[in-house]
Amino acid sequence: MTDPIADMMIRIKNALLVRHSQVIVPHSKLKEAVAKVLLENNYLEAVEVNPVKPQAELVLKLKYVGKLPAITDVKRVSKPGRRLYAPADKVPQALGGYGITIVSTSKGIVTDAEARKLNVGGEIMCQVW
Prior knowledge:
Blueprint: H1 4-17, E1 22-26, H2 29-40, E2 44-50, E3 57-62, E4 64-65, E5 68-69, E6 74-76, E7 85-86, E8 100-105, E9 108-111, H3 112-118, E10 122-128
Antiparallel strand pairs: 1-3, 2-3, 4-5, 6-10, 7-10, 8-9, 8-10
């Protein structure tokens, strides 16, 4: 698999479309950091690491507001064939500020608002709204 972050985001989106309560993805530290950012911003209910052999699993409990999913759509911005970087003052907002942009910075995986607050730029990974 060439793009594990895109795979994780699409698994979440597809699970939400068919109203699943949770989705299981292969674990990595990067995926766990992205999932924790989604959890902090109320897009997921819970994130658990299931240490199964040969590779651990990341169990993401999906969040619904009433009958509607908390995540409407996701967009992978930086791709393996075309990485996209931005300085702190040029980090884009998702959907005019209604969503979040997840940025990989030297301070860790943060949202666009946190990147501007910390005054750090980085790779624009994806947008969630």
